[in-house]
Amino acid sequence: CDLLAETCREENCQIIVKKIPDSESGHNFEIEGKSLKTGKDTIYDEENRWFCSFYKFIEVNDTIIKRKNELTFNIHKQDTILTFNWDCEGKIYK
Asked: Which residues of the chain are under the pLDDT cut of 50?
């Protein structure tokens, strides 16, 4: 779990969602949208089962924020923020 946590800690995804090509994937997380960092249209495409588990909560115009060195995945909706901690075998990592 510690090794996986460090791998997830490296991920950085900050994007306003414009399209979700395959919300059924269980291993490849792909989102089309606008980068918060550059303001340009971009595609975030990463093999990441943890991120894929949140497809059911993500809608067009949501903002996804997963900052490098953090182990929280945040979905900013119009009126609320959903925050998910990374966990492994019942232990929450921060």
From this structure: none
Q: Which two tokens stand for residue 8?
A: 């997830």
**Which amino acid, 85?**
N
Contact 44, 13 (CB under 8 A): yes
CA dist 72 and 94 (Å) reads 8
Residues in Cβ contact with 7 at an 8 Å cutoff, skipping those fewer than 6 apart = none
- CA 83/CA 92 separation, integer angstroms: 13
């490296």: which residue's tokens?
Answer: 10
Give the CB-side neighbour count of residue 26, counting CA atoms within 13 A: 0
pLDDT digits (tens, 9 = 90+) for 2-27: 999 999 999 999 999 999 998 888 88
pTM: 0.91
The pLDDT value given to residue 23: 84
